[in-house]
## 1
Amino acid sequence: MPTIADKRRAFRKLHEAGCFVIPNPWDIGSARYLQHLGFKALATTSAGFAFTRALPDGGVPRDMMLAHIREIVEATDLPVNADFGEGFAHDPAGVAESVRLCGETGVAGLSVEDATGDVAQPLFDLDTAVQRMRAARGAIDKAGGDVLLVGRCECFLVGRPDIAETVARLKAYSNAGADCLYAPGIRTREEIAAVVEGRRPSRSM
């Protein structure tokens, strides 16, 4: 049985090596089945777990979600990335505390997104979103720094399909300490290319 440290090292190596498929188990059985199929890593699904409890996505309390994440981590030999929503807090200090608790479940990575859950204001303003990402980074570093932090931009999922805003937000999250960037909802070749090109460091002439 690999240790938590082993899983975290393996997860980082997967990201360094290139593209890989990461499926979403919603319970112990699906986690073990996906491992059996040969996948190299798993990621929890906030919506999938919520639906198993007859709750809407975002309706699972933090303690219940943490228990679920720990259960998945302990059920498999594979690295697990936690779909951790908005960090179960709006303020940076609250995000830091939630991230600390999530790291203690043994996850190899976790994502923090910039969606608020408020239809009237679906995204945190950029300054707040960056402060939240920095808080998440700080919590991981304080605990040892080995959990991979994923910065998620939710523009395309909340009715703001602006690729320029998406790229600008992802760059800001990278600068704030995110190790990996994710823009769910982008689909076209052009959108994907814009995100990939936007993440590359500029070359000096």
Note: Residues 126-143 form the longest helix (18 residues).
## 2
Amino acid sequence: MTRIAILNASPLILLGRIGFIWLLPKLFPASILPSAVFTEIVAQNTPDTLTIRWEVDAGKIIVQTPTSMNVQTVSQVCRKDMALGEIQVLALALDLQDQKQTPLVILDDLPARKTAEVLGFPLLGTLGIIIRALRAQFIKKSESKQIIHKMTKIGAYFDTELIQEVLRIIELTNNNTLP
């Protein structure tokens, strides 16, 4: 059974802007986008939002609204500065957990990531997507480094130590084996 991935805005926007959004449905055939995240992305009305909308229209990414009960639950345990989209990502994860599924939450924002950890959800960020794509042989080592460079060039902020660790992992990755 394919694990369901619940996506926040930043991985979609970053990968969309540099032309690598196609990695998401390849890596996560069962991908859900919370309705608040979809609204946030579409409101930007940029070329990358058209690509994201196409993925949704093609059924590669499903837009879903979480239950209000789980939105309230997450709102009670999260930091007050978390955005509605991040809250909905975690609320959808709770909805799926209620259905006896263990979704993967894909978030970059640190407070949201910490809340996901507290709630016990498996977690991945945009840089983790790049590593997975490399290991799945959807991209090459040189391409994975270029993706990271392109993302930082368009304004993505990742901790310097984190980038160095990811680059080290990329160098050590043998595309035929997973650690």
Note: Residues 78 and 115 are 6 Å apart (CA to CA).
## 3
Amino acid sequence: MALWGNDDNLVSSGTVSLNYDTKVVTGSGTTFGTVGFGTVGDVIRFGVRGSGGTYYGDAVIAKVTSATNITIASTDGLTGAAISGKQYYLSELPISTSGNHVWSGKHRGTATFKNHESLAALDNSAAGEYAVSVGAFNSGVRIATGDQYMDSPGADTGTGIEIIGVGTANATTTSASLVGYSTIYAVAPPGVVVGDDVTVTVGGVSGLQQLVSVASTQVAIAGTVSAQVNSGARIMFTSNNVISLASTISNAISTGDNLYFQRKSGGYDKLVYGISDAQSQTFDGSSTEYRTEGAGWVGVTTYIDQHGNLRVKSETLVAMSGIQTGTHGITYPTAI
């Protein structure tokens, strides 16, 4: 039995179920026992990676009884969750990895949102508003796009709404501003004050224009617009005191309310990938987190740190060219 091969694209037809006690895998529509379709020494990878699928881990095929019946060597590399009527992958990845606790499916977990920060509201926000006002850039405040605002002032519960802008928020104009006007007819987002900016066209150049007054239904800029701003246009305000949201809040906010924010973290995951020559050419030296260092069998660890940043660490287990990848294998990279 070879310790590894070069094929990460073995045909994996049908579905499988596992009896954890006997280690027997029963297939439906499977073709085990034929080279290229799952033989002794191949690795069976239970479940589906990405696209909302559930992945259960890896095991080595120790015995093939029939085209629909095999026995695995160990369940140590599996999550322990029930496997019944599930899809699977077959691979010639190094068999040692399935029995190594470092690459065990028990390490896998989904990133979740956790309480991260609480801040006092600097302005009122009505129900139906797309923005809230806090000191987004003040020293010590750690709010970023991708975090969530908990839609329940004064409590760390409620529906999480994704933050899509820190220091910016949009508004819709209610009347046109003709060329030469210094007034923009729009309700400024909560927290916007004199000295903040709005993006409009002045002097033929679209850019930030400083606000000289902020009223209930309009704002005034230091210059005059050189291209008409139509009614119903979307304009963007820039302010250190505003956070914009992906959807509207359901509960009104009053100045001084304590607002709670969450950040996604965790999602610790380890997986061995087959990196083909073509994939190596794509990802070697990449400026993204998924940089590779040559073709072969590569172990990849991913997680989201306490700052909400994706971390990716890789370890080349077997450096070799000629790894075959394709639609029957796990595409690199694939998120959990």
Note: The radius of gyration is 28 Å.
